[in-house]
Amino acid sequence: MSITDLFSTDLKPVNLGLDMFAEDLAAQGAAPVRMDWTPPGGGDPDVIAALGRLERPEVAEKINAANEEALSRILAAQPFLEGFGRAIDTVPGMTATTILHAGPPIAYERMSGPMRGAVTGALVFEGLAKDLDAADELARSGDITFSPCHEHQAVGSMAGVTSASMWVHQVTNRTHGNTAYTNLSEQLSKILRFGANDQSVIDRLNWMRDVFGPMLGAAMELNTDGIDLRLMLSQALHMGDEAHNRNVAGTTLLIQALTPYLLETDFSTQEKREVFDFVASSDYFSGPTWMVTAKASMDAAAGIANSTVVTAMCRNGVDFGIRVSGTGDRWFTGPAQQVVGPMFAGYTPEDSGLDMGDSAITETYGIGGFAMAAAPAIVALVGGTVQEAMGYSRTMNAITTGNNPNVTIPALDFMGVPSGIDARLVMETGILPLINTAIAHKDPGIGMIGAGIVHPPVEAFQDALRTLADTVGEA
Pfam families attached here (predicted)? Predict the structure, then answer.
């Protein structure tokens, strides 16, 4: 074909960047192919410059070595469930007037509706306030200490509110010796972690404090070997879970492992029946367990000089925060995003609060949204198609340091889940981590109204990259 022949054939131009070019071509009768592409660094000149400094050969060599170390720690982590205990007796830094919450630091006055609802409900539950109005006044008084779960070796689902009398998992990473904590699942949709706080919620929390938690604790005192959560997690993915929002297999496996010891406790037959009925009421019983499994693994990768691996992602309904290994405990934040997905009957997207919860620690580890190919049935809850779910897991390989051979996805030829998000790759590719999550109502006192897909704000990664360039890039 000669070059002149091009003018007598149908052209298929490829459009990268602004849609206006494709739109102009389409208006002239062409059929442009639109590429899903964004410029490195989100097009921010400072971030592009920061990427350039981090890509200098001598700097990239240091970063790659540090990231390999971070990944090796994640892969070597062996989280074991060792027991359950009251938060005030186990969680570092917990006091009678401390309220832990999900996401990066936030004052009560800035909290989202559902998080304020959870805080006031917890204050009533603890007996620190007689009713919700008094609890709101107390929360504003300065007499209550608010602190992120992540700053206490802990994680919390949705609002993440954890108070002194609540019972928590104790999970130890036996490879590295660190311990992590998370509270117990309340199971139903009208619950504290979604901001509901009426008397039925308080009554359930009282039962969990007096029966559920103590029985789980007594059971694990009888189990002196602990429970290998990494092995159980791998089994759950092979059985159709992704271990964030679909936990059918994980809950079955976990209660199966606990049952012999629950039966041997000194609690009454009626109390044991209540516990089994409660676990059977929702598949989410093991959801917090996988969160704390991921937390115990990711904490082992924190604090490695020069590493750009993301060790935490979390949100509080107002801000989305990340931590990066090479910058330790420092938070990088951006605005919490709207979750897009199916709503329960009677609700619309306008009713939903913004993205909330520490449960994105699962995606940070490589499960949840990163492992949706293992759980095609999840699309019924969060929306989309099975093919999209498969594609999500493949796409996350583009922004991670490697794959975890201990936790694999059968449908992708037993590919290890993508692990070790690299902040550099997020900015180079423009691919943001994918998170599947529940949706809480924007107002306190209502609860869960849907589920869907969300991405972190690019601003958090841009801020992290600028800081990394100032430290690693100038070292």
Answer: AllG
